[in-house]
C-alpha cells in the first residue's frame, strides 16, 4: 500500500508506543506487516524526525521510544518545520488563534506548539483538522495569529 510520509510517520509513532522494537529491521518488518514497505534509509530518517531514541526497556533490552520533550529550543526549530508542513490557514478571534490543517494533522501541530513553550501561549486544543491556540490575557488573538503567519512565510 502506498502511503505518504505523514501517514507512515503516524503509523510509526503508534507502533513505537505499542511495541518494544529493538532495531530498524524490526521497525521495517512491523511496518511491512501493516502494509507499508519502507527502505532502511526512510525508516532511519523517520525515527530521527520523530525524535525516537533507544532506551532500556522493561526487560533490559534497548528499544526505540519517542522522546517526551526535546526541550523548548529544539522544539521551536521543529515547530517551524511542522507549521510549514501542515498548517493551511491561520485566523483569529478574541484571544485565540485558529490554525487549520489537513485531516488528522492537528494533533502533531498542537503538540509541537506545546513543546515549544511559546511566550504568551496559554494552551492548545486540537481537533482533527483545527487547533485553537489560546493566548494569555492581554494578548490579542490577531497578534498570536500573526506570529504563526510569520513562521509560514
Indicate the topology.
Layout: H1 5-18, H2 24-33, H3 40-50, E1 52-56, E2 62-66, H4 72-86, E3 89-93, E4 96-100, H5 106-116, E5 121-126, E6 130-135, H6 141-152
Antiparallel strand pairs: 1-2, 3-4, 4-6, 5-6
Helix pairs in contact: 4-5
Content of β-strand: 15-25%
Largest sheet: 4 strands, antiparallel
**Total of domains:** 2
Strand order within the widest beta sheet:
3-4-6-5
Our Rg estimate from Cα atoms comes to 17 Å
Give the count of helical stretches.
6
Helix content: 40-55%
Give a brief rundown of this model:
With 153 residues, this protein is α+β, with helices and mostly antiparallel strands. 48% of the residues lie in helices and 21% in strands.
Structural account:
The chain has 153 residues and is of the alpha+beta class. The protein has two domains: 5-66, Winged helix-like DNA-binding domain superfamily/Winged helix DNA-binding domain (Arc Repressor Mutant, subunit A, Orthogonal Bundle); 72-152, Gyrase A, domain 2, CATH 3.30.1360.40. It contains six helices and six strands; from the N terminus they run αααββαββαββα. The protein has helices spanning 5-18, 24-33, 40-50, 72-86, 106-116, 141-152; strands at residues 52-56, 62-66, 89-93, 96-100, 121-126, 130-135. The strands form two sheets. The protein has a four-stranded antiparallel sheet with strand order 3-4-6-5, covered by helices on one side. α4 packs antiparallel against α5 (106-116). The longest helix has 15 residues, at 72-86. The radius of gyration is 17 Å and the shape is elongated.
Amino acid at each position: 500500500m502506498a502511503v505518504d510520509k505523514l501517514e507512515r510517520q503516524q503509523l510509526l509513532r503508534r507502533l513505537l508506543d505499542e511495541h518494544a522494537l529493538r532495531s530498524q529491521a524490526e521497525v521495517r518488518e512491523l511496518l511491512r506487516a501493516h502494509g507499508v514497505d519502507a527502505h532502511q534509509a526512510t525508516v532511519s530518517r523517520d525515527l530521527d524526525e520523530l525524535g525516537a531514541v533507544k532506551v532500556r526497556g522493561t526487560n533490559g533490552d534497548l528499544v526505540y521510544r519517542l522522546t517526551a520533550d526535546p526541550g523548548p529550543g529544539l522544539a521551536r526549530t521543529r515547530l517551524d518545520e511542522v507549521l510549514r508542513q501542515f498548517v493551511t490557514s491561520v485566523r483569529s478571534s478574541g484571544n485565540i488563534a485558529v490554525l487549520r490543517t489537513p485531516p488528522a494533522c492537528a494533533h502533531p501541530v498542537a503538540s509541537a506548539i506545546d513543546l515549544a513553550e511559546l511566550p504568551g501561549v496559554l494552551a492548545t486544543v486540537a481537533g482533527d483538522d483545527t487547533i485553537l491556540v489560546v493566548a494569555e490575557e492581554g494578548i490579542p488573538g490577531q497578534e498570536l495569529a500573526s506570529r504563526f503567519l510569520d513562521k509560514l512565510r
